[in-house]
């Protein structure tokens, strides 16, 4: 960009990633991955010869953080500082010795009470197992010691589960290098025992059989399996079709009281789900509901009479306020089915009958009879079989009285089914009560009025509930109070940073290996990558370093949506600032308001504090002091508003840069003016389109394909749908969800018109634009921002104007958390086209009309892409604008 001539040119053009330009003499040096293996190296562009030249040729690691000096460029590569001599183009290592006490590497004792990931209540409800930061703890309901059962900073134990007989704690441990099922005897001191050798793969929650001899689980490959402890055998049960991280981590299964049958829900190709029963004796699964609805979360009645489950069978539409669209929220019911056709329905008619009073037996005879009954009861209990009639199962299903809504989980005790209500869609009440339905009394009761999760003990007498990071064990009864908290604040463990970081690095490597959509890892030797970047990990001295190494490892996949972050990192204090929603300028040694930022008059969401009625502070006024403290022009203006976000402040203002005649005004600052500036930019663009087209064309800006983008599309489209044409601007679209509904809205076709006697005739669909459209795109539009123009083009809605999009449609569905709270995203799916070709990952969507965002024009206040969009849409409007058909003559009928 020529600062004097105000002209610009694109240099060293390439579809590769070019960054960090550094001007030296007659050349610009920069980082680029345009070379062999897409490895980031230093390149140069010569202004005289117009030639691009590769300077460094590293093949093992990327170059990072280059910085230009008088004659050299220093950069990081492979964990070492390197120095490039620009005259000789030679590279040498800069050896740096840092004297440090390595405090960040010293083992430390740390409280992990706020790092709880999963929990399992003891069979008698007196204790619970907690997974926190990769260790398993035994925690009392109220009294007693907190015991760290595993003490392994260098390995992770996940999803602990207490056996119903109280003998074992089962969990997945990666001590062997992979997550394997491990049993720890809770009754006898001794080492844990690894009982499986599954190898690669990730596994989830464990579900014990009532006889404590089998454990069911699901793995990342969606396979439902049972491990038989006595036979040391894994029994395959079934396989899900569309389960990913969220569904896998919330998968549940329930055992029949006799430990023969396993109940679970499985998805179907219709995207519905059905209830299945697996017979461990025959090793055969049976589908017992049709899958016509969304059936989920089955639980056996501990008495062997019923199977309870959740099912979406209540359809009550909610209509939109802005058009005729509908949704069907709050569809889920609590259902019950009798397991045998010999068992009466739980909602069968009742009859209060009077029986004949029997003569009381003598005391000695009564004692003998009681003893016989107890012995008989024990024998029956051992031999009792759960009778299930598979034929006609769904015909025996009834909806229990609790109102349809949103539910999170079910569990059952004798005579009761417990359910966790979630807030109904659209409800202002955000409480999530734990309730139960009493089958005998046929009434609902609330156990606790607001909980995050719950788990019932194996004996059915106690329930563990969590609320806002606190845990309590209470009775399975109504109106329980959470006044007795479990002592989770006493969870402590010794952390060895180097050991933990190695475990975290290995987890990242495994998660990518196991969850990445391509089992061939895009042709990358993933074992070699573990070795290569494991070397860099050895030099890490902070958790920030670990995240950097993780990022480098994941980048080798050459895929979008490979993010990492968080973890136990040290962060400095961040101080917020108050804002006035203005542009500042310095004039005569004082701060003056250059512009008061304003969106459209109807945008009441956020406005500049100075735009409020009665303030009377305008463009050109000086702000001389804030809360009596003079503004210092040697500092940024925001320095005077440090710590004053969303607060009332007193401004000293004047029309001249002196205190003489100044006045004081009280305003309420805003904590962020990003949204305000965004709205102002949108309104300026809309006005430009309106002005240039004489009001014939509308302008709609879509910032993302998430909720905010959806809202902006609907908000702006419904106000302008009657225009002859539309410009849809999706530049800088940050993505979100898959935008098929966005395109459906823009692609509505005329189906009919309605004639009336009085007033205006109207079209159908009512909220629809039948005119030509143009979409503006650029390289900052990605993910859903790639899919939006791609679908727009496939639907034939109009031309794409601007520059090629980001190119990131290898998407994510979540990944397990790292033990210290860090996170990564692993791409688990990739889009391909109806013709069987891949979407161009890393390339994006090409425009039909390419328009460079010329900095020279932008500096003059001209948006070249918007201007060309106006030209293109007006061509279409003038050539083939939609014409409303003339109403036919009235008929004689």
Give a description of the structure.
The protein has 5 domains: 77 residues, Thrombin, subunit H (Beta Barrel); 340 residues, YVTN repeat-like/Quinoprotein amine dehydrogenase (Methylamine Dehydrogenase, Chain H); 68 residues, Transcription Regulator spoIIAA (2-Layer Sandwich), CATH 3.30.750.44; 89 residues, PDZ domain (Pdz3 Domain, Roll), CATH 2.30.42.10; 153 residues, Alpha-Beta Complex (2-enoyl-CoA Hydratase, Chain A, domain 1). The protein is 16% helix and 31% strand. It contains 11 helices and 56 strands. It has a 5-stranded parallel β-sheet, with helices on both faces. The mean pLDDT is 95.
Number of domains: 5
Tell me the name of the CATH homologous superfamily of the largest domain. Answer: YVTN repeat-like/Quinoprotein amine dehydrogenase
The major beta sheet can be summarized as: 5 strands, parallel
Number of helices: 11
Shape: globular
What does this entry show, briefly?
The chain has 893 residues and is of the alpha+beta class. 16% of the residues lie in helices and 31% in strands.
């Amino acid at each position: 960009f020529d600062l004097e001539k105000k002209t610009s040119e694109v240099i060293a053009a390439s579809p590769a990633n070019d960054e960090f330009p550094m001007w030296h003499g007659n050349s610009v040096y920069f980082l680029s991955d345009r070379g062999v293996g897409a490895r980031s190296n230093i390149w140069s562009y010569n202004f005289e010869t117009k030639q691009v030249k590769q300077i460094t040729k590293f093949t093992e690691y990327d170059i990072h953080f280059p910085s230009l000096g008088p004659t050299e460029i220093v950069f990081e590569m492979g964990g070492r500082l390197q120095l490039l001599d620009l005259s000789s183009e030679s590279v040498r290592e800069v050896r740096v010795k840092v004297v440090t006490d390595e405090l960040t590497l010293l083992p430390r004792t740390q409280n992990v009470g706020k790092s709880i990931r999963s929990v399992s209540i003891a069979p008698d409800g007196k204790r619970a197992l907690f997974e926190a930061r990769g260790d398993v703890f035994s925690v009392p309901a109220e009294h007693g010691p907190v015991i760290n059962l595993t003490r392994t900073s260098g390995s992770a134990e996940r999803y602990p589960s207490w056996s119903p007989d109280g003998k074992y704690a089962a969990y997945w441990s990666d001590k062997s290098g992979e997550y394997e099922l491990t049993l720890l005897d809770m009754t006898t001191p001794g080492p844990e025992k690894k009982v499986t050798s599954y190898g690669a793969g990730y596994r989830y929650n464990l579900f014990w059989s009532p006889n404590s001899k089998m454990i069911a689980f699901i793995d990342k490959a969606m396979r439902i399996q049972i491990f038989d402890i006595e036979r040391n055998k894994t029994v395959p049960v079934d396989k899900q079709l569309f389960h990913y991280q969220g569904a896998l981590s919330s998968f549940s299964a329930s055992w029949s009281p006799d430990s023969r049958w396993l109940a679970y829900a499985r998805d179907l190709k219709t995207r519905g789900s059905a209830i299945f029963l697996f017979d461990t004796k025959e090793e055969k699964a049976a589908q017992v509901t049709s899958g016509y609805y969304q059936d989920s979360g089955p639980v056996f009645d501990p008495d062997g009479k019923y199977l309870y489950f959740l099912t979406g069978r209540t359809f009550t539409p909610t209509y939109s306020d802005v058009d005729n669209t509908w949704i069907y929220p709050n569809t889920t019911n609590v259902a019950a089915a009798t397991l045998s056709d010999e068992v009466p329905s739980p909602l069968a008619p009742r009859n209060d009958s009077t029986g004949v009073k029997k003569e009381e037996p003598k005391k000695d005879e009564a004692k003998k009879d009681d003893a016989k009954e107890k012995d008989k009861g024990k024998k029956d209990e051992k031999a009792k079989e759960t009778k299930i009639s598979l034929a006609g199962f769904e015909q025996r299903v009834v909806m229990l009285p609790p109102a349809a809504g949103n539910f999170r989980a079910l569990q059952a005790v004798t005579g009761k089914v417990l359910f966790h209500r979630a807030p109904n869609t659209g409800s202002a009440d955000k409480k999530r009560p734990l309730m139960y339905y009493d089958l005998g009394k046929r009434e609902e009761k609330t156990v606790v009025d607001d909980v995050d999760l719950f788990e019932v003990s194996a004996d059915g007498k106690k329930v563990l509930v969590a609320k806002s990071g606190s845990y309590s064990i209470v009775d399975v009864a109504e109106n329980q109070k959470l006044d007795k908290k479990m002592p989770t604040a006493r969870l402590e463990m010794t952390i060895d940073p180097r050991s933990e970081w190695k475990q975290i690095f290995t987890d990242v490597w495994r998660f990518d290996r196991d969850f990445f959509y391509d089992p061939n890892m895009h042709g990358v030797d993933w074992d070699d990558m573990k070795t290569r970047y494991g070397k860099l990990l050895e030099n890490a001295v902070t958790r920030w370093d670990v995240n950097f190494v993780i990022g480098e490892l994941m980048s080798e996949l050459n895929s979008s949506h490979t993010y990492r972050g968080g973890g136990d990192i040290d962060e400095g204090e961040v101080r917020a600032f108050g804002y006035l929603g203005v542009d500042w300028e310095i004039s005569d040694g004082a701060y003056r308001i250059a512009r008061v930022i304003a969106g459209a008059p109807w945008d009441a969401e956020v406005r500049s504090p100075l735009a409020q009625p009665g303030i009377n502070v305008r463009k050109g006024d000086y702000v001389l002091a804030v809360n009596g403290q003079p503004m210092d022009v040697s500092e940024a203006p925001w320095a005077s508003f440090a710590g004053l976000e969303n607060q009332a402040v007193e401004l000293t203002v004047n029309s001249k840069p002196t205190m003489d005649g100044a006045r004081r005004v009280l305003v309420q600052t805003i904590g962020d003016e990003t949204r305000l500036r965004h709205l102002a930019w949108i309104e300026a663009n809309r006005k430009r389109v309106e002005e240039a087209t004489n009001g014939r064309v509308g302008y709609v800006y879509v910032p993302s394909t998430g909720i905010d983008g959806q809202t902006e599309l609907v908000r702006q489209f419904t106000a302008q749908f009657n225009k002859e044409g539309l410009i849809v601007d999706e530049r800088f679209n940050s993505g979100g969800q898959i935008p098929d509904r966005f395109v459906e809205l823009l692609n509505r076709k005329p189906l009919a018109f309605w004639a009336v006697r009085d007033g205006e005739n109207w079209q159908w669909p009512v909220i629809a634009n039948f005119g030509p459209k143009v979409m503006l795109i650029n390289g900052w539009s990605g993910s859903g921002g790639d899919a939006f123009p791609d679908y727009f083009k496939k639907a034939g809605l109009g031309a794409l104007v601007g520059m090629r999009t980001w190119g990131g449609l290898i998407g994510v569905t979540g990944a397990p958390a790292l033990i210290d709270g860090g996170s990564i995203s692993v791409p688990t799916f990739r889009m391909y086209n109806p013709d069987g070709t891949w979407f161009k990952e890393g390339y994006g969507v090409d425009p039909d009309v390419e328009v460079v965002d010329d900095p020279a024009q932008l500096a003059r206040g001209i948006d070249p892409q918007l201007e060309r969009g106006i030209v293109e849409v007006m061509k279409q409007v003038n050539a083939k604008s939609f014409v409303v058909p003339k109403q036919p003559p009235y008929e004689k009928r």
